[in-house]
Amino acid sequence: MRLYGVTGWKNAGKTGLMERLVAEIAGRGVSVSTVKHAHHSFDVDHPGKDSHRHRVAGAREVLLASRNRFALMHELREAGEPTLEELLQRLSPVDLVLVEGYKRDRHPKIEAFRAETGHALIAPGDPTIRAVASDVALDLDRPVFDLDDTRGIADFILAEVGL
Fold this sequence. Notes:
Blueprint: E1 2-7, H1 14-27, E2 32-36, H2 50-57, E3 61-65, E4 70-74, H3 84-88, E5 96-100, E6 109-113, E7 129-134, E8 144-146, H4 150-161
Parallel strand pairs: 1-5, 1-6, 2-5, 6-7, 7-8
Antiparallel strand pairs: 3-4
Helix pairs in contact: 1-4
């Protein structure tokens, strides 16, 4: 599977860019999956639902399925957080996996940047960031796209991964 990341600081526009890229790239007939890293605890289940009751009772994995989708919830139960590589092995094969977050991993990435957040660019100190999508003009040693140039960014990513 080909892999490309979208990284940046909080409120830099990563999720919006990911959403637009998935729509643009999938619309071109390329199969896409995503991986999103969360720095906080999260839950996709709801208290009182049967699947939640199974997990609270101690199940290691709960697979919730319907005719429209299935979700596999895996409780780590004191085990360490899986690496990106380990998580990728759980995905079904697709043409491209877009990864949001995982800024310290070594896969190629585009950095989402909004000047108003007040954060410094990550790109100058990180060679895995191959381009920047920004809301302001920047003078860098790599391509800089307008943060809203979804088509141009998609073209760049697909060329980078050979699709």
